[in-house]
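Thread: "does anyone have the structure for this chain?"

Original post by V.I.:
We have the sequence but no experimental structure in hand. Need at least a predicted one for the grant figures.
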Amino acid sequence: MAIPRSARLAAVGLFFLAATTAYTYPLVFEPSTRLMVGLGDYLAESATVAWHARQLVRDPLRLWNSPFYYPSSHAVVQQQPAAFTGLLAAPLLGLGAGPLLACNVLLLLSMVTSGVLTYTLARDLTGRELPGILAGLVFAFFPNRMDHLGQFTYQMGALMPLATWAACRFLLRGRWTDLALLVATLWAQALSSLYNAFGLALLLAALAVALRLVRPDPPPPRILPRALVGAVGLVLALTPFLAPYWQAHGELGLQRDLDLATWFGMDLLSLLDPGVFNRLYGGRLVGLGRSEGGLFPGFVVLILAAAAGWSLRRPAAAPDGPRWVRIGLRALGFVALACAAVAVAAPLVAAVGLRRSLPSWLRVRDLTLPVNALPLLALAWIAVDARREPAPRPSRRQWTMVFLFLSVFTFLTTLSPNLPIGERRWGTGLFEWIHEFVPGASAFRAPGRWSLAFALPLALLAALGLRVIQDALRPTRATALSLVLVGGVLVESNVAPLRWDRLGSPPPVYDWLARQPGDSAVVELPIREVDNAWAMFWGLRHGKRVVNGHGGFDRPIMEEIAQASDPFHLPALLTALRATFPLRYVVVHVPELGGAARDWEKSLRSPPPGLRLVHRFDGDDVYLLDGTPETGVDLHRRFPTDLLRSRRLAYRLRLAGEDPDVVRWIDVRFNDQAIARFTADGGGRLEPPLAFRTTAPNDLWFRHEYRIGPEATRAARYRIGRTGVHAPVDLRVTSGGKHSGGTVSVRVNGHETLEDPRRGYSVVTLDPGDGHVLAVTRFDPFRSETESRRLAQFIDGVAPGAIVVVALRDNGGGQLETEGVRALRAVGGIEDLRGTLGLSHLIVGVKGARAGEALEFRGDRLLTATVGAERPVGVTLEALDLD
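Reply from O.Q.:
Generated one for you, tokens below.
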């Protein structure tokens, strides 16, 4: 008697629920309190999902204006979109579940659903139950997936098997129902996890190419126009949710440096790395220490995949086809084996030190061609083989070829762009071209997180391999061996017991914040990734705007606060805090400050004006920050666009200090637009039209400027060394070597010119007539001799007579070479730092001066030089209010 399909699916679902329960124990029994130890991603992503869920109900038109990452607008773009996940979480939250409970329930359901859907797809391909269950186990509990159990969005890949099933059916039949299901699953996957959606898109694109080659006859005429309709529909459905990402692209630079992928991508040997949590093989096989873990699926899966590949060596019962087909298949097979052999042998030869004993033509140094040729050769094999075995539908053998190709292709997409093996680079990987030429790919830094797109075709290939073995045995033996292999996958995938932490009661500081009235922002110190995640998670409880944000892209605001608080520097910290408007509360988790806790408490025994302790909890201190009055030469305020949606920002300014030698004024700028100039005390309001930013914080600057009278600059203190040239501006230059503070600064009339100081020489050139900045650039001759030559070329191009300021940070002498020293002497310097490490060095010179005439210092301590005066003048922001 046949078992009904619904009953089979129910039994399979219970099986995967039992496996999920065992692997994640005790999460199933305590889903409201358990979370992975030491990981912030899960907390931050839980907060993001909960925000989406609540906002979809309260105000869906402002779905992107989350309270995190303040003062960014559309702050959701700092994380992956979670609208679909939020939609699933909304009923749970509506029933009173907390964010952690809702996300843990969705996590468990995702793992169970992953297994059931992959089982369904594999069963359709193989026609057997046990291969389907085995495929479901591989995809649902792929070791790399379990390594990422603390990254919630990574786990939201349950729809990948369904999308693949729908894509196969549409590409073979062209039916509207299959297309609608494909579009719906792609939409939901994109709004659950962009990483999985992008990996899935690469997988489906490769699948479409492979299936097109499997069927050499022209496609049904209805497929292309329907596919176009589906693509347009998908774009229209995603646009409201992804538009903020495109809008933010120009403002925030939502693209990643390719160098990041060298760390967040996989190694060529990752297929043998079981990752962190695997109980059977962890620490016993290859341990590459990659950021994204390993890709080892277990020996059972690799053997079954190999069995599937071995079954392709000759057709089961197909005609041989034309002679050129047979020759072509043999040639392709030979080339593919040669490429694979080179890719395996070259690193092994290098590892055992036999490279030098080989003839020069056998010393392979670059694996770009043999590695990247493998998927192309697999495609060519599919195309040629289809000429021998034409059929209206792909045979099981052809499906094996397709999923073998997809396994190779998707494995290569997870690799670092430099094809690493350990510390050695072996060429250019597929990701570099994807990053360069595929739209949107440059926003991804971690190709290793596309591993579920590799796990799915590998799981289906293993299922096809199990079917091959079953067909070679008698039914009873086939069943017994299949059960053993399924059990082997269960054992090899085991990660239990995992290290779980327990969510405690909400700290009382957050309930106190929730009771405070007004629309204001909160920052929590220290600024660190895990601490930021907790700030986001508890931010849902108090409802205030939160400056902290976990993950995402670089945020200069948080970086400024972090640098000023560790090591602790109260003036710089107050400046950074006041720049965020309206930042009201500073929550300090004193035990988390570590070594900075003593400095914090010592500095705040007598808090400066504008910062006062308002409440002290057990380990948590709350300070009230007053943003005004504040005095300086550059005063800065940042705020999101939505803050001024229905209100105006009013300010009042005052010229602070007196100095008869200068003519003074205050420039007011909003973003890149000059809006006012004051030559005396005054004030104003931000009035339209103003160019508000879509995502990036809006910048309001109050800048104190002055011009020195010509008589004052004739004084000796304005003379630059022994050059005979007088500076028309006040200069203050600081240089700190690696062991002398590691800092650098060049201030002109009190204003810092180095916005992004880094290691090496910073060079600032000034007009000798009025002192305005001509150029600011940086060179790192510690890194390479090329940087030293670049330094020389730049100084050679400076006009004679120009004032040149050179200041070193951290290190600069390591690979400084003759041309660089010559160039520094061309502005009046004389010191030679070649071969030195960690020294401080600064020059204030003039292009064309003789060596030794410039003002120059060198030493192993923090160095400061002043030309002109340090004037006690500035601007005071007396008030800044919303009205």
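V.I.: this helps a lot. The longest strand covers residues 698-708.
O.Q.: and The mean pLDDT is 90.
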